[in-house]
Amino acid sequence: MTTVVTENCQKCRFTDCVAVCPVECFHYDDEMLYIDPEVCIDCAACIEECPVKAIFEEDDLPEDQHQWIEINETKASDLPVLLAPMDPLPGAEERKDELGF
Ligand code: F3S
User: Fold this and answer.
1) Which of 47, 50, 51, 87 is deepest in the core (most CB within 10 A)?
2) 89 alpha carbon to ligand 1 midpoint, in Å?
3) DSSP 63
């Protein structure tokens, strides 16, 4: 099993998750992060860290978020690894409010 980043990460990209990851499983683009399922050890440490609850255990994914399993796998394989947290995207706090967190 793996953990999966879902749509709440878009326009936020807080990267608190990266700070607690014991392996190098997070990859990034201009929108959000993606978890490489081949590298994730399923420790679940990142799940609680995300301020917009964007990360789920694969088995706990909401019904309408299952497409993110494949998106994470595909995107992670093409994008650079993120080794340390970076600044959230501009407007991330406003997006967090919009999402109700
Ligand atoms: Fe995204 Fe949440 Fe991490 S917003 S970058 S999954 S802390």
Assistant:
1) 50
2) 11
3) G
Mean pLDDT of the chain: 97
Residue 1 has pLDDT above 90, yes or no: no
pLDDT value at 51 more than 90: yes
CA of 31 to the centre of ligand 1 (A): 10
CB 30 within 8 A of CB 38: no
Q: Tell which one of 12, 30, 96 to mutate to probe ligand 1, the residue whose CB is within 8 A of the most ligand atoms.
A: 12
CA of 83 to the centre of ligand 1 (A): 14
- Contact indicator for 9, 101 with CB cutoff of 8 Å: no
